[in-house]
């Protein structure tokens, strides 16, 4: 119970911080002098940026399991302290991918607001995700179920790619740039979403209390 409460508080704080980042991104969009030539794009990560997998992690202990609760009486005082000892559990790709195949992940509301704002001013959204090509159909379904549509591109990891997340994502951004697109913004929950040239004219890092890729 203590573990769940702590994790929910952490998640709530992260969602609030994510909202702040998205608000900042909207303010940045308002400040732009756009060329309006159809070449301006914004790169979005998907997991924990556009769609939230919180329902999956909540069902799986937020990536850890409780080893035990220790109650102590520090310095002989009457008040007690409680310490929960946790152990991280390894990521289970099989169960996570089964969850992805449900296509039920909710949208992060403030990211969706940013997405709609960009479309309204003519900046084309591009999804760039570590999801793999075989997950394209369910990812499209999930996004549409959440009222998200009209993107220019959905770039997924191709079979056989062995490089790092930074190599993959920066490489795809480079292809966009080489094709004449201007990346006016780039938003993601992992550092690997926003590091590696070309990063985009401005990057926005969302917090992720549940996992770290790099
Ligand atoms: Mg992500």
UniProtKB/TrEMBL annotation:
Transmembrane segments: none annotated. Keywords: Glycoprotein, Signal, Storage protein. Gene3D superfamilies: HAD superfamily/HAD-like (3.40.50.1000). InterPro entries: Acid_phosphat_B-like, APS1/VSP, HAD-like_sf, HAD_sf. Residues 1-22 form the signal peptide. It holds the Pfam family Acid_phosphat_B. It comes from the Eukaryota. GO terms for molecular function: nutrient reservoir activity. May function as somatic storage protein during early seedling development. Belongs to the APS1/VSP family. This is Stem 28 kDa glycoprotein. It comes from Triticum turgidum subsp. durum.
């Amino acid at each position: 119970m203590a573990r769940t409460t702590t994790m929910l508080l952490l998640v709530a704080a992260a969602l609030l911080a994510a909202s702040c980042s998205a608000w900042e991104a909207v303010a940045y969009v308002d400040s732009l002098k756009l060329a309006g030539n159809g070449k301006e794009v914004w790169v979005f990560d998907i997991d924990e940026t556009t769609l939230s997998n919180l329902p999956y992690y909540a069902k799986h202990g937020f990536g850890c399991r409780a080893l035990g609760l220790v109650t102590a009486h520090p310095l002989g005082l009457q008040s007690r302290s409680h310490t929960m000892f946790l152990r991280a559990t390894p990521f289970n790709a099989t169960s996570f991918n089964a969850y992805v195949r449900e296509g039920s992940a909710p949208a992060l509301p403030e990211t969706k607001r940013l997405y709609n704002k960009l479309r309204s001013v003519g900046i084309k959204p591009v999804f760039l995700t570590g999801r793999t090509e075989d997950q394209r159909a369910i990812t499209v379904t999930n996004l549409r179920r959440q009222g998200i549509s009209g993107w220019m591109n959905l770039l997924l990891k191709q079979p056989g790619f062995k490089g790092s997340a930074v190599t993959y994502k920066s490489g795809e951004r480079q292809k966009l740039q080489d094709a004449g697109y201007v990346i006016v913004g780039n938003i993601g929950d992992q550092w690997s979403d926003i590091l590696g040239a070309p990063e985009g004219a401005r990057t926005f890092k969302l917090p992720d209390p549940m996992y770290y890729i790099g």
